[in-house]
Every structure is written in structure tokens, then in C-alpha cells.
């Protein structure tokens, strides 16, 4: 008779490590698939070259109309944050998930969701010293990452401590956002809060709750292989 499987819930550290192993396996499979698919794609492109030239004008017009619709959807995503007793804000408006190839005007700063670039910002504990595109960062949030942001009012000591925290945490990233309202802010898909300093207990609580948390639209999706700054 076989023994029963353990029902002990995984800790946050174990859950993240399990996600990391799965991501590495997916990346290996993806590389193999890319090699196989590339040959077929090249052949198809050669055969379809003449057709693509003749259809170019029509496709450009269609893309322009699609872009206008995307902008309209972004504008319709207006809403507000409702805060719980712990200070975590939840966005009330609908957050679209369309892939776009242009700048998006988000109704909050930093953004916590909405239309975004098809390439995610690398979020495997990545720390960026300069501002990064919102559209790529939002895609990282869709994959279950927590985005730590700060402006010039944050102390050097806090920035250094935050960098250490992020570098030790898969599915997280960090960058400066000068226009945000508070010195240090934490964002996940649909959620955001301010923390007073890097030693604020709310920092660890936010990571525990939202790194690959229940809010994640695409749990387990890659945080490597994207844009690296």
C-alpha cells in the first residue's frame, strides 16, 4: 500500500523555488521549439513574400485602426484604489491585458496592470538603476512579479536594502520612478501600497502575499528571457 501524499502547504520560499525549477524546464523546452519552428517560419516567409507586399497597405490601415481601439480601451480602464486595513490598495477598474506596440497612458503611477508590451521586463530578482518602460514592467506584473519602485526622496540606505531584498527574491524587480507620489512603493497586478522604509514589516508582508500570489493572471510564466534594461 502506498503512503499518502503530504498535504502540508508549501512555504513562500518553497513555492518560489518550485516556480523557478518549472521556469527553467519551460525555458529549455522553449529553446528546442524555437529551433524547430524557425526553419518552418523562414520557409513560409519566403513563400508568402509577394503576398505580403501586395497586402502591406491594407495591413497598415488595419493596424492603425487596431491601435486606436487599444487607446480607447486604455482610457476606459479608469478607476481608483480602495485600501484595506493593512494599507494595500486594490484597483477598482478593469485591467485590460492586450499586447500593444506603443506607449500606454495608465491611470496610476506606477501602473498595476492594463495593456502592455508583448515582451516582459526580466523580473528574476532584477534591479534596474534607471527608469524602465511601464509597458514592459506591467507584463512582468502579469507574470506574478512584485515591482519595487522609489524616487529621489528615498534614502540611500533604503535603496541599498531594497536592492538586497529584490536580488534575493525571484519574481521581483526594482527600478526608480521619479513621478510616483511616495518615496517607496510596491506594486503587483491590481494592487499597490506605500512603505515607510526598507525595514517596514509591510514590505515582507506584501512580498509574501503577492509574489506569485492569487492575483497573478499568468502564474508560473517566465521572468527571464525578456527585456533586460
Automatic annotation (TrEMBL):
Transmembrane segment boundaries: 32-53
Ranges of compositional bias, category Basic and acidic residues: 12-26
Endpoints of the signal sequence: none
Polar residues composition bias: residue spans: 1-10
Keywords carried by this UniProt record: Membrane, Transmembrane, Transmembrane helix
Region feature Disordered, mapped onto this chain: 1-30
Classification via Pfam families: DUF3105
Name the record gives this protein: DUF3105 domain-containing protein
